[in-house]
């Protein structure tokens, strides 16, 4: 059985993505550079990274519906995980995106929450 390896990212919708990112930087220490809307939190012991990012409130990246956040899960084998989800009856998007830092796929849980799966290179 395929299992999630960790959290690859946490994404938040915001009316003002820059201002919210600044708030998180100043009050929680999230490593967001001034003027940016995303940062990377790295685990020195595991050598893993988690992306933290704000998006405009009207983004379509989180899929349809009123969701204000989306979680990205790191997986070892994206194709096997997507097949496992399809076999379980989950709504899985047909598209897969490939980048030099990994492959991405998307699915929804039984309550309609969209999540992203990332197989790092």
From TrEMBL:
PROSITE patterns: VOC (PS51819)
The protein, known as: Glyoxalase family protein
Stretch forming the signal peptide: none
Taxonomy of the source species: Bacteria, Pseudomonadati, Planctomycetota, Planctomycetia, Gemmatales
Domain of life: Bacteria
The VOC domain, residue ranges: 6-120
PANTHER family (UniProt xref): GLYOXALASE, GLYOXALASE-RELATED
SUPFAM superfamilies reported for this sequence: Glyoxalase/Bleomycin resistance protein/Dihydroxybiphenyl dioxygenase
């Amino acid at each position: 059985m395929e299992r999630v390896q960790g959290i690859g990212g946490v994404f938040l919708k915001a009316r003002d993505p820059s201002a919210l990112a600044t708030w998180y930087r100043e009050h929680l220490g999230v490593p967001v550079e001034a003027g940016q809307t995303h940062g990377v939190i790295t685990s020195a012991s595991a050598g893993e990274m988690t992306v933290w990012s704000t998006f405009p409130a009207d983004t379509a990246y989180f899929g349809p519906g009123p969701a204000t956040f989306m979680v990205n899960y790191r997986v070892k084998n994206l194709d096997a995980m997507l097949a496992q989800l399809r076999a379980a009856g989950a709504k899985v998007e047909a598209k897969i995106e490939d980048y030099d830092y990994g492959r991405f796929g998307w699915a929804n849980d039984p309550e309609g929450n969209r999540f992203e799966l990332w197989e790092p290179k």
